[in-house]
Amino acid sequence: MLALRVAPPAIRTDRLSKDYGVGRGLFELDLQVTGQEVFGYLGPNGSGKTTTIRLLMGMIRPTGGTAHVFGLDCVRDSVQVKRKVGYLPGDVPQYGSLTGDEVIAYLGGMRGGVDRRRVHRLAERFDLDLSRRFREYSSGNKQKLAIVVAFMHRPDLLILDEPTSGLDPLNQQEFYALLRETRDDGATVFLSSHILSEVEHVCDRVGIIRDGRLVRVAELDDLRHIRVHRVEIEFAPGTPIPEREIRAAEGVEEMKAEGDRITCTVRGSFDPLLHALRDATVTDLVSTEPSLEDVFLSYFSEPRRRLLTS
Amino acid sequence: MTAVLLALRLGRWGIVGFSLAGFVFNFVNAVGFFQIAGHTPQERAALGATMSALAAQLVVLLPPPIRPDTVAGYVQFRGFNSLAILFAVWALASATGFARADEEKGLVESELATGTSRVALVGSRVLAFAIGLAVAAAMAGMAFVLGVASGNESFERGRVVEAAANLVALGLACYGISLLVSQLTAARFATAAAGAVLLALFFLNSLSRVFSWLSTWRWLSPFRYYDLSQPLPQGGQLDVRAFLVLLGIALVASSAAAFAFWRRDLGGALVRVPMRAGPPRYEPSTSPWWRYPVLRGVYERRLGVLAWSAGVAALAVLFVSLTRTIVNVLLNIPALLPYLSIFVHQQLYPAVLGYTWLNVAQLLFAGLAITHVARWSAEDSDGRLEMALSAPYSRAAVVVERMAVLVAVALVVAAVSGLTLYYASHANGIDLSVPRLTAASLMLVPFALVFAGAGALLASWNPRATVGLLGAFAFASYLDTELGPVFKLPLWLQDLSAFKLFGTPLVTGVEWRSVTLMLLLAAAGVGSSILLMQRRDVGR
């Protein structure tokens, strides 16, 4: 009889906690990330994203619960864990007067088994000149160097703490493409972010954390209900304003009319609003994405939170 | 005002540490004087003669004493004049810390963004350092007063104030010079360049006491103007002109530094060497050194290793060339002749060289260890440790590799020092025993390891406070050696000092008990460091 052996999940935490006191830290995190997925870890500043990542990397010790990576305990087996992981910390380490190629060689030497051609391809892809000294790099280039270090040994799991901070939009797109390729090659990605649109771009599933507690784990489609935009529409003077149609459009909330202008919020798709505007003469339309904190305040206000978690 | 308060806050640990050092150093010396000096005029005259002999051997470090048979002369010589060197080091660290380290952290940029002008910023830092210096010098003066009171002797209050003021003036001059040099060079060379300039100015003055041809140039050195005033003992006085020159140097150098800071780009040097732009490179470094543990650490510090080796070699040559002069001075002290005659035809030169050079070499190797430890604590705060631990590398391996790198670097520097000493002494007609010279040079490695072991323990326990605490440990260790016999401290306590354990290997050979104790102390430090490292959280 054949015994089927089920591969352990890439990440599993059981009641994982790190209590810094006065309500700060991470509390009873139960999370499972399966292989070959891009998992987004979304939360506002100070919500516990970096604490979770440092616990997974064995940098800090839990005050309760356990964390496992590919079935290995993150504290007890931390060396074996790190053989399988590529890590990008939230704050890029400072390498002073070392050149980029020396930083790569230094960390590659510590890790061993780094493919030089892979480094070349990554550096070229992000147009990162490795002959420059670290202290001469711009913050974006320092971030690119950290990306090369995280990806250079083709790890099975990438743990990335706000990886796109400091990158310009072109390089952000390049990074998203790299993430998708990495997943397609069989790796798992765990990335933290506080930008909703970013996780929408690249993630298969999203965990939402607030005040050190996991609020929800959502599929990508669920995010559309969370995502909200503030919209300001200006109409040509003297032309009719389709106020009733806009108010009735699906996803439109908190509408206010003032002269030739209408302000409202749109949750989910813009199609119903655009449909409502089809016969109007719009002179200006501005859509802004509110901060994650604002989204949380509006969406995860107490009654809804109870509803979601019940 | 806010900028001054911020500067005081940033430098608070320096002020606390050096105030404490000034207090302890002078108090212990003043109290120690009454322990060893005796009470009769004959006993005090004998102490004065001993101090003169000591001063002859320390001529390249300290100016000759005035009335070392009195508590004021003794404390001026051993207390205030030693503190002058310590305060110069503080000035160097503080000035380069402001000019470069704070700039790299973005602190300077933030302060300038508030609308503070560059000149005002420099002025606020100079003022804050002056306040810190005044506090530390006042503590040193107060320690002298309390120490003298414990011996029921009298002192002149004005002389104490003058001695403290002289210390402040020297500190300010060194601060101004360091600040100016830091503006001229690239950030990564700033501390080394300012340190080299201060060291050169120090030796320009101190060597002029031995080599008369240098005396035409010593007016360039601020240390010369400090030496001209020895106000504490009877017969000494504050040279007002020299004191004003010191303040003038501080003012001119600080103003020039402010001008240079105003002219240069943040993060850049005043004088920039144009860089040739080449095609971008996407390959990792091909150097094989990076692949191997320990070797990569030594390779990373290669410029530092070269600088340490060159500096130690240069000092070794200097001390060998001074040995004959020092011996001649000693032979001209009639009170010492009966004692020296025992050694004249045998070990006088190795004894003097061993005392002068190996004492300095111990300080240098303690400094080498402290610079490594400072790097370890910086790795914690700048995220490098976190990155190293993201590789499949255990925490114990990180601690052990750090120590191994220090051993390798110390071995290289000790080998260069030993070889230089051998060839220089041979060229000067001084015969040294090769096995003893080899042993003495190698002894510097476990000596450095004692400090590194303590530093490893501190870096694992509290990286932010490591350098200050290790400096205090080194200071206490030194005091333990110097004053342990005076205060009749228990032997086991004296044996905790690496300075005591080092012994006199050039004359008496290696004491294996001491070597074993040093290695045990280092091993205890490393073992505790590994245990603490396993338990602690890493990351900013």
Description of the structure:
The complex is a heterodimer of chains A (310) and B (540). In chain A, strand 12 and strand 13 form a beta hairpin. Helix content of chain A is 35%, strand content 29%. Chain A has a six-stranded mixed beta sheet with strand order 6-7-8-3-9-10, with helices on both faces. Chain A is globular and about 70 Å long. Mean pLDDT of chain A is 88; it is low at 302-310. The two termini of chain A are 43 Å apart. Chain A is an alpha/beta fold. The longest helix of chain A is centred in the middle third of the chain and has 16 residues, at 169-184. Chain A folds into two domains: 11-224, Rossmann fold; 228-288, Alpha-Beta Plaits, CATH 3.30.70. By secondary structure, chain B is mainly α. Chain B is built from 22 helices and no strands. The model of chain B has no long low-confidence stretch (mean pLDDT 89). Chain B starts with a helix and ends in a 5-residue tail after the last helix. Chain B folds into two domains: 1-270, no CATH class; 294-540, no CATH class.
CATH topology of the largest domain in chain A: Rossmann fold
Measured distance between first and last alpha carbons of chain A? 43 Å
Please count the helical segments of chain A. Answer: 12
Number of strands of chain A: 14
Average pLDDT taken over every residue of chain B: 89
Share of residues in strands of chain B? under 5%
- Detail the poorly predicted runs of chain A: 302-310
Assign the CATH class of the largest domain in chain A: Alpha Beta
CATH superfamily of the largest domain in chain A: P-loop containing nucleotide triphosphate hydrolases
Which strand-content bin applies to the residues of chain A? 25-35%
Short characterization:
The complex is a heterodimer of chains A (310) and B (540). With 310 residues, chain A is an alpha/beta fold.
Keywords:
heterodimer, A: 310 residues, alpha/beta, Rossmann fold, Alpha-Beta Plaits, six-stranded mixed beta sheet, four-stranded antiparallel beta sheet, disordered C terminus, B: 540 residues, mainly alpha, 22 helices, globular
